[in-house]
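Q: Okay, next protein. This is Spermine synthase from Salarias fasciatus. I've checked the sequence twice, so it should be correct. Can you predict the 3D structure?
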Amino acid sequence: MTHCNLKSDFNLITPHPPIAGLLSIFHEQELTETVHDTNGHGYLATFVGKHGRLVILRVHSRGLVTIDLQCYEEDNIAQLDNLLNALEKKLKVLLNGNITRIKKLPALVRGAKVDRYWPTADGRIVEYDIDQVVYDEDSDYQNIKILHSRQYGNILVLDGDVNLAESDFAYTQAITGNGRESYAGKEVLILGGGDGGILAELVKKKPKMITMIVHIDQKVIDGCKRHMRKTCGDILDNLKGDCYQILIEDCVPLLKKYVREGRMFDYVINDLTAIPISTAPEEDSMWEFLRLILDLSIQVLHPRGKYFTQGNSATLTEALSLYEEQLGKLSCPVDFRKEVVCVPSYLEQWVFYTAWKK
């Protein structure tokens, strides 16, 4: 059963608002009151009414009043919204202009069949206009979801992280050089890229050969070739074409094999993972994996080649700085540049890196 939460916050000049005047509104709605002991930290009461309605009234000792109204989706939301409006008007009258700020939030929906709330990389909660789960599979390595958004099209979500939407061509452009590169006749290595967007775009550039190593997980390809067609077209229908091959293997042994063989690529595009949010590289296994992939990738890069990868949210400056430190510790010295790109479905600015051998 779907549950809704409506919320209003009031910042007051006075730390002791007249509670009795507010309570009359709850009583008019036939809500039964229970006052809770806060050990001197303001006032806390809950009100229970028909249809499972629950109101939580909290008056904090420093003048903040919060009102949470919980109900089921089948309840009369408009009527409940009117209740919050009535409380707001009553407070204004009772406090005679001593309110410095009022903030009423839209309803939060819990327990819905389709989860619309997903975190950004910098820890904010975003509500998407998701109306359908089109693919939901657990592989041996991760949970794979593809969700439909009215605004962004189908969105690939891996273990709860928004990876790519059909609207996100800006991501594909950025991680392939934003149109500044010539791929004609070149050898290209893609690490990851299971959504097929990068491969589909680069095949159009007439490269000599693209080798794409999808790191282990076949089910990502299975979902994307059925439900992300606006991103990948038909490129994932076959694991091999005239100028590309898709390998579903652990990329680390394969990269080490390429190093031993002296194989070189004009472009290496790392689409495996974003930079870890953790700022303790010596303790985080993801940083260890990232350093290994980075070092091996540069070793198989042609002396005049370029290495492209995503970074992370532009607000995660400490993690980005740590990544740039790793670039300075590789077995082969590199220079790099970065640029910030707006990827539509991410709802935050995203950093991309280009590196090349000195």
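A: Here is a summary of the prediction. The chain is about 25% helix and 40% strand. Residues 167-357 form a domain with the Rossmann fold fold (CATH 3.40.50.150).
Q: Noted. On to the next one.
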